[in-house]
Design a protein that fits this description.
The complex is a heterodimer of chains A (276) and B (246). Chain A has 276 residues and is mostly helical. Chain A is built from eleven helices and no strands. The chains are: A mainly alpha (276), B mainly alpha (246).
Chain lengths: 276, 246
């Protein structure tokens, strides 16, 4: 869509082009602003109690207070730490298992049924079991996040490697590449777009599960802070938590697609117009 | 026979579980033997505990997911069909899609209390956007040739929407619904674990608090199996219904 607009505007006068760009830029944020204004207006209309719907300004004030006292930094850092450490484990372990499955018959025999049964399961149900085994601290939080988020990475790696063109591997072999070189220099890069897609599915999952684990186990972290606020019927705190988590989720997802574009700059998909 | 060989690793894990627990290599509170878990499961089926709680969970899941599919599909196709709708909604979708939906659990409780309503709202909000995005991408990529030929054959706009755009949005939308199905289980169980008076998650929590771990394992495995079975059933139904696409 942006493609067509760019072509059209290329033939227009610069002033007109600027006006058009400004209008589109405004249209992009217009509905967000509308939502925020409606939120504030509804909260002030007196139809809802501040408990049901605290004003946006009150929520922003609360976030500001948290930022000043340093609570925001601690909670955000802890949640991010748990989510990102788990994500790193999922990325490394998931790709390794996926690669092992596509290269080794025994690994495939063992992991294939586990992945095909485990992938669609709601693994969050194992949270109480993990608490029972590992307690309520970071180890168990990270464990449950990894259990939940590793399956998309494994599945994407297996599918990605299966789809690598035979000709690529044959020609690398022909030129005298060792097995190891074929794997690291041909198969892995060729499967990387699929693997990245798997990682892009896993990343939001780590945050979803991190928040649930924190809510259930308590302690510091954005999820824990929201739960504490909700126990004390402090709905400003609850809404502040949502806004904070929303911002983190947005930044993480956008950052991930930026990394994807950077890593896959050599791939033909980099030239295609991006959706979303 | 082939499936039996395929699934032997799962069988081996089950046997290893039973042996490890029977010979008390780990404490039986942490890992009750599989046979005890099965016995607890049968007991809970008999006294109806598992069925009433399960029915409550299933009702919430289906109601939330059903609403999400209907509203999500309509929104997605509308966004692809009418540009103003897209301009208005696309930024909102873009901002809310990456929001980890589990963060909404306390808010849905503030709005609708501890009962069914808050879970249905949570699942609806959490599962709608994958369906919307699937329907949007599918409808947008509906082949121009089809649209043109329908138009040249004199189809009016509404007919074209129904006969051309909706069917071509189907495959991607069905993928979106599959994502939503998995997500609905995650949200349902998390919400029930955190605040509920009924349902699978609540049952798991209260059994764990009582220390009846064999029963807790039984419920956990039941939920996991249901999630798996729902996914497989969904795949079967879509393959069977949409055989014309393949």
């Amino acid at each position: 869509m942006a493609h067509v607009d760019a072509q059209m505007s290329a033939t227009e006068a610069p002033a007109l082009r600027f006006a058009r760009a400004a209008l589109w830029g405004f249209a992009r944020v217009f509905s967000i602003l509308l939502v925020l204004v409606v939120w504030e207006a509804l909260a002030r209309s007196g139809k809802y109690t501040p408990y049901q719907l605290p004003a946006l300004t009150a929520v922003l004030g609360r976030i500001w207070d948290d930022a000043v006292t340093g609570d925001l930094a601690i909670n955000t850092a802890l949640t991010l730490y748990r989510a990102l450490v788990s994500f790193a484990i999922c990325a490394v372990l998931g790709t390794a298992i996926g690669m092992a499955m596509s290269r080794n018959k025994i690994a495939n025999w063992f992991f294939d049924p586990i992945v095909s049964v485990g992938f669609p399961m709601p693994k969050i149900a194992f949270l109480p079991v993990v608490i029972l085994w590992l307690g309520v601290y970071d180890v168990s939080k990270i464990t449950i996040i990894v259990i939940d988020a590793i399956f998309p990475v494994i599945a994407a790696t297996v599918v990605g490697i299966q789809a690598v063109e035979r000709e690529l591997i044959w020609s690398a072999r022909n030129m005298g590449a060792t097995n190891r070189e074929v794997l690291t220099q041909v198969v892995f890069p060729a499967a990387l777009p699929q693997i990245m897609t798997g990682l892009q599915v896993a990343l939001p999952l780590t945050l979803i599960v991190a928040v649930v684990a924190e809510m259930l186990m308590g302690g510091y972290g954005l999820g824990g802070a929201m739960m504490t606020a909700s126990r004390f019927a402090n709905s400003v705190g609850v809404f502040a938590g949502i806004v904070e988590i929303a911002v983190i989720g947005y930044v993480m997802v956008k950052g991930m697609s930026m990394i994807r574009r950077r890593l896959l700059i050599w791939h033909q998909e980099a030239n295609e117009p991006t959706t979303a | 026979m082939k499936t039996l060989i395929r699934y032997t690793p799962l069988l081996l894990i089950a046997i290893a579980w039973e042996l490890v627990a029977r010979f008390e290599l780990v404490s039986t509170t942490a890992l009750p033997p599989l046979s005890d878990v099965i016995r607890a499961w049968i007991d809970m089926i008999k006294d109806g505990e598992l069925i009433t709680n399960g029915a409550a969970s299933m009702y919430r899941g289906m109601a939330g997911l059903g609403l999400a599919i209907i509203v999500g599909a309509i929104l997605g196709i509308a966004m692809a069909w009418w540009k103003p709708v897209n301009v208005l909604l696309a930024p909102i979708v873009e901002v809310f899609y990456p929001l980890p939906k589990s963060a909404l659990i306390p808010v849905t409780v503030i709005w609708l209390g501890f009962g069914d309503g808050s879970k249905i709202l949570l699942i609806f909000l959490g599962c709608m956007l994958p369906v919307t995005i699937g329907a949007f991408n599918g409808a947008r990529s509906s082949e121009q040739v089809l649209v043109w030929s329908a138009r040249s054959m004199g189809a009016n706009k509404l007919r074209m929407l129904w006969d051309v755009v909706v069917p071509s949005a189907m495959p991607e939308m069905l993928n979106g619904i599959r994502t939503a199905l998995a997500l609905s289980f995650i949200l349902l169980v998390s919400a029930e674990l955190i605040v509920a008076q009924q349902g699978f998650g609540h049952l798991i929590g209260s059994l764990g608090a009582n220390g009846s771990y064999d029963a807790m394992y039984a419920v956990v495995l039941t939920v996991a199996f249901l999630g798996f079975a729902a996914d497989r059933l969904y795949l079967l139904i879509t393959r069977w219904t949409f055989a014309w696409r393949m």
